[in-house]
Amino acid sequence: MTPESGTEIEAITNERLGRRLRELRLQSGMSLRALARELGISASAVSQIELGTMRPSVSRLIAFVSAIGAPLAAVFDAAEAADGEHAQAPSSPVERFAIRRAFEAAPIQLSGGITFRRLSPVPTPDVEFFESTYPPSSISNAHGHFLRHKGYEVGTVTQGELTVDFESEVVTLAEGDSITFPCSRPHIIGNRSETITAVATWLIVHH
Predict the structure, then answer these.
(1) How many helices (H) and strands (E) does the chain have?
(2) What is the CATH number assigned to the segment(s) 14-90+102-205?
(3) Which one of 13, 73, 130, 197 is separated from 87 by 20 to 30 angstroms, measured CA to CA?
């Protein structure tokens, strides 16, 4: 049953997220153990993510899809398709326009309560458009390791305040502030407020 406009859609479950990640890994031809070595974690941890018993962090999710050569947007495709026909991606490029209503965009909830929601109505070549929500005191990598991946990132804070930690400096972004940086530059994104949720939109452009 499709939610009515204005109704908050439920987040994609851990089990569906894990199942989709496993599908993408198998499509890539990479074994579970090879992926574990690439991520620097145990094969058991990868298995738990794919089974939905372990919720990945933002950094772990991005590292996972990067290692298997899949765009982050691909994680949403099959997972959202289970909710209805609106989630199906077109088999050919959009010629006129494509629309996705707010109640059709199921978010993914990650470690620390951070959520990612795809904003692009359909997959767009070389471009990924997302909204991220960071609860108070949450960071993109709970282990404090810097993330680096492919592409170029543009972000705008629409609510609250976020910090972007680079290896040699920290940038604080208030509501309305924007930032651009190469994704290959090691970084950690976090919300240092203890009371206010932060929301931002992100555009990742792949070279």
Answers:
(1) 5, 10
(2) 2.60.120.10
(3) 197
Contacts 24+ apart (CB under 8 A), 182-185: 182/151, 182/152, 182/153, 183/148, 183/149, 183/150, 183/151, 183/152, 183/153, 184/148, 184/149, 184/150, 185/148
**pLDDT, tens digit, 9 for 90 and up, residues 131-144:** 999 999 999 987 77
Whole-Å CA distances, 60 to 9, 36, 141 = 24, 11, 7
Cα dihedral 110/39/189/50 (nearest 10): -10
Length of the chain counted residue by residue: 207
**Torsion angle (degrees, nearest 10) of CA 34, 36, 42, 43:** -60
Are 156 and 203 contacting, i.e. CB atoms less than 8 angstroms apart? no
Q: At what angle do helices 32-39 and 58-67 cross, to 10 degrees?
A: 130
Rg (CA), the chain: 17
Single out the residue of 183, 191, 185 nearest to residue 202, CA to CA: 183
pLDDT digits (tens, 9 = 90+) for 14-42: 999 999 999 999 999 999 999 999 999 99
Task: Supply angle C-alpha 149, 152, 22, rounded to 5.
Answer: 40
DSSP state of 51: H
What backbone phi and psi angles, to 5 degrees, belong to 198?
-110, 140
